[in-house]
DNA sequence: CTGTTAGCGCTTTCAC
DNA sequence: GTGAAAGCGCTAACAG
């Protein structure tokens, strides 16, 4: 039988209350007593039963998700996954709330975080906007003891406990290799459609993409990046225009959102030529385009996994417990038309 | 506050014991009383606190994993993941045991299952051997109330509750498309290395592979399947021999295990020619081969995910709870050298 | 058939 | 500083 608080109380010759105080590092225990209890804990190999503790405490983990107020399919899906997590709240002892902030607006994000530092939730998950002032307040909150995980877009160089998202440099590299291999010996130009070069994940994807292209596919030339602001209309215009003007384009890499517009442009302008296209994020639109051969491969991050992972990690950090690293790694999913879920 | 057993006892005008009997569908409750309690449960929207129940019961979930005694890298990794799960047992209230049975031996599997039906574990996870007698006993056990999930290799047409493994037809199709696209306009022959056509997952991969090849890549001819019995030595011999004899081979699909031998053969015989190679399962050997360009892509199933998923599903089924379907779907991982974990 | 009571492992008053 | 005792939500004897 696993040792319980009773066992260590007996072994240390103290009461349950004292054991509990030591276990939860509460004050009011003499140094020697604390030592005795800690010794007993170690000797008996005590492992705390978190479920029982939570039952006694009536604990619920209050978690906050901070999301940008952008309305592309991916963010919509992310929201849906958070709602699913909220439905599971009773069973998981969570109390999840989302806060929307204007996209790409560090100041707004900072003020929300400032607000939260007063409210003291058990954990914060945030789609990070990569700016020094955000890093600063995140570091301050982490130092103050808040568990924080970044979601989808990371805040490198900060003290955030965990990043629940894909490796975007690897994603860009993978896109380059797929495109290069699919195109084979052909020479030509590659159009790149991004949302904005101000966002870290887009910059990283581009960085990975261009480096593999340069190293391994010298016959392919990358054209200047089209910034579609993750907006279908703008994306449509930019891509349609590029295809009309440049007959040398043989491949497209869409590393941001707004693929609805991209797909429309492809259908209008590329009926008569063979284009190889790689895009990010599996949505109803990209799925249909993959199936009808408008898109050749989709790189995806599983929003459901990201949300579940963020919740698990925040709960674990709140309790000072370890996470299963492999379980929390967000894979880069590669979908061809044959392995769609 | 969530309603508790006390609330429904009060609402129904009965005692805690009676509520508990209804909740756990134990006998000894008059029909009318049961109705009253069930009404109260429904009206108050009662949700049982599984953690508290397990605490009171002192419950541990005894789970058995039945694995084939084959010693390829994949099975070795699967075993390692089960050991990891065993390490987590205290926290997860599980008691996990593995049983090895001779590979591809339906009779042995049946007798182990027969044995288990007496021992009554809370759940069984098994790498299924696809045979009618196995299906029969699995169905019998499921009818008798045992939660059963198949692992890695499914038992279609049986009543097993769940399959924790990849869609192997999709895997074969994906391999075909990758190979076809990577080879581009080239014409030539494709060697296929399998373990054994007696195993369902290998048959399915081949089926998916050949169908996409036939539909979409008519310039590529599939050679008769080489059956390497998942053995590196045999695989080496077969592949080396095929490459020596046939200069028309431009691609290889290895859909089983024993890739160590395949890789050796490729390094010996294919230095002077450009071969495109797709293999299954990420191991130390295939990873190295991917990095040095001997292999072009690896299709993988995440053994860790499979084991964790099997445990979660078995626990849920033992409690009659729902699972999160998306979480339990085992993805087909596609690894290029750029997105290795 | 139904109710009373003790207790799972842990936390939390409130005394001492 | 420390301990005794009650209680979290649920289950399991054991009475009646």
Q: Your description of this structure?
A:
Chains A, B: InterPro entries: HTH_LacI (IPR000843), Lambda_DNA-bd_dom_sf (IPR010982), Peripla_BP_I (IPR028082), SBP_2_dom (IPR025997). 2 copies of one chain form a homodimer. With 341 residues, chain A is α/β, with parallel strands linked by helices. Chain A has helices at 5-12, 16-23, 31-44, 50-57, 73-87, 89-92, 106-119, 132-143, 168-183, 200-216, 232-245, 259-269, 284-291, 303-318, 325-328, and strands spanning 61-68, 94-101, 123-126, 148-151, 162-164, 188-194, 220-222, 226-227, 249-254, 276-280, 297-300, 333-335. The first copy, chain A, has 3 domains: 5-48, 434 Repressor (Amino-terminal Domain), CATH 1.10.260.40; 58-165 and 303-330, Rossmann fold, CATH 3.40.50; 168-301, Response regulator (Rossmann fold, 3-Layer(aba) Sandwich), CATH 3.40.50. Chain A has 15 helices and 12 strands. The model of chain A has no long low-confidence stretch (mean pLDDT 95). The interface between A and B is large, with 44 and 45 residues. Chain A binds a DNA duplex (16 and 16 nucleotides) through residues 2, 4-6, 14-21, 23-24, 28-30, 33, 48-49, 51-58.
A few lines on this structure:
2 copies of one chain form a homodimer. The first copy, chain A, is α/β, with parallel strands linked by helices and about 350 residues long.
User: What's the alpha carbon Rg of chain A, rounded to whole Å?
Assistant: 25 Å
User: How far is the first residue's CA from the last residue's CA of chain A?
Assistant: 43 Å
CATH class of the largest domain in chain A: Alpha Beta
Proportion of beta-strand residues of chain A: 15-25%
SS elements, strand count of chain A: 12
CATH domain fold name of the largest domain in chain A: Rossmann fold
Q: Structurally, how many domains make up the residues of chain A?
A: 3
H-E order of chain A: HHHHEHHEHEHEEHEHEEHEHEHEHHE
CATH superfamily of the largest domain in chain A: Response regulator
* Category by helix and strand content of chain A: alpha/beta
Helix content of chain A: 40-55%
Q: What does the average pLDDT of chain A come to?
A: 95
Major sheet of chain A? 7 strands, mixed
């Amino acid at each position: 039988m696993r040792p319980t608080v009773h066992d260590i109380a007996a072994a240390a010759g103290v009461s349950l209350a004292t054991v509990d105080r030591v276990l939860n590092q509460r004050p009011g225990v003499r140094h020697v007593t604390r030592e005795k209890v800690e010794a007993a804990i170690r000797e008996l190999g005590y492992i705390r039963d978190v479920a029982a503790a939570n039952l006694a405490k009536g604990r619920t983990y209050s978690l906050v998700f901070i999301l940008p107020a952008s309305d592309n399919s991916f963010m919509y899906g992310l929201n849906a996954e958070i709602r699913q997590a909220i439905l599971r709240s009773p069973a998981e002892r969570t109390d999840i709330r989302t806060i929307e902030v204007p996209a790409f607006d560090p100041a707004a994000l900072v003020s929300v975080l400032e607000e939260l530092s007063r409210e003291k939730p058990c954990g914060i998950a945030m789609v990070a906007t990569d700016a020094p002032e955000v890093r600063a307040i995140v570091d301050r909150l982490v130092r103050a003891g808040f568990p924080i995980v970044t979601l989808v877009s990371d805040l490198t160089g900060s003290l955030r406990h965990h990043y629940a998202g894909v490796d975007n440099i690897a994603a860009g590299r993978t896109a380059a290799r797929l495109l290069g291999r699919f195109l084979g010996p052909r020479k030509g130009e590659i159009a790149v459609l991004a949302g904005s070069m101000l966002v870290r994940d887009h910059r990283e994807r581009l960085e990975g993409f261009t480096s593999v292209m340069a190293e391994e596919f010298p016959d392919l030339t990358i054209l200047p990046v089209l910034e579609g602001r993750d907006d279908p209309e703008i994306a449509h215009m930019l891509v349609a225009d590029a295809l009309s003007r440049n007959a040398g384009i043989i491949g497209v890499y869409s590393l941001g959102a707004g693929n609805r517009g991209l797909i429309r442009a492809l259908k209008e302008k590329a009926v008569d030529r063979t284009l190889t296209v790689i895009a990010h994020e599996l949505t109803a639109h990209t799925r249909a385009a993959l199936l009808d051969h408008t898109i050749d491969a989709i790189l995806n991050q599983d929003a459901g996994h990201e949300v579940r992972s963020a919740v698990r990690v925040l709960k674990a950090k709140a309790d000072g417990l370890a996470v299963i690293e492999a379980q929390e790694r967000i894979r880069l999913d590669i979908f061809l038309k044959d392995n769609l879920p």
